[in-house]
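Quick one:
INPUT:
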């Protein structure tokens, strides 16, 4: 019951009002890169007659963004292609990743066989972390980076020397690198 309440509150905090307000600066850069992905298959800075050139093209090479890790743009592009360009479409896949992370937390708490007080402490610790929920619902790299980092650490701690798990960890590290270069380096 406690796990169900935790998941319901988490879902509310992650999904409520995703499209209610406009994209903020960094989210709009992700969505513009996603438009480039939709239009050209790459992080093109050209959108019709417009060019997205943040800080006079600082991030661009040959009119493509080659400095920003591309995973967020590709995730947003898939969602925008399916639902059309909107704040809700940009934020939804990231909020769903956050929801999957909260589901993972629930499974881990249940598997450890904690008593009611210990479980409640973990759930309240997560629910009380407002910043975490705000980051997880943004159309940026936060949700993929946090989720992949947690999953990689979990798989590494459970790794017993098998090749299959090592390959999976390697693939997840490559995805983390595509989500955020510095988070990947810090994790390694």
């Amino acid at each position: 019951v406690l796990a169900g309440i935790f998941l319901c509150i988490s879902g509310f905090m992650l999904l409520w009002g995703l499209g209610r307000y406009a994209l903020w600066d960094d989210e709009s850069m992700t969505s513009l890169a996603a438009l480039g992905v939709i239009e050209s298959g790459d992080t093109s800075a050209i959108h019709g007659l417009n060019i997205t050139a943040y800080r006079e093209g600082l991030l661009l090479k040959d009119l493509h963004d080659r400095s920003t890790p591309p995973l967020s743009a590709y995730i947003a592009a898939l969602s925008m292609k399916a639902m059309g360009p909107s704040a809700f479409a940009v934020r939804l896949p990231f909020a769903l990743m956050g929801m999957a992370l909260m589901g993972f937390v629930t499974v881990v708490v249940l598997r450890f066989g904690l008593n009611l007080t210990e479980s409640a402490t973990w759930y309240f610790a997560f629910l009380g972390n407002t910043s975490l929920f705000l980051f997880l619902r943004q159309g940026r790299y936060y949700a993929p980076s946090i989720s992949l980092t947690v999953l990689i650490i979990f798989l590494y701690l459970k790794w017993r020397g098998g090749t299959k798990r090592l390959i999976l960890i390697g693939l997840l590290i490559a995805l983390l690198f595509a989500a955020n270069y510095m988070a990947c380096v810090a994790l390694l």
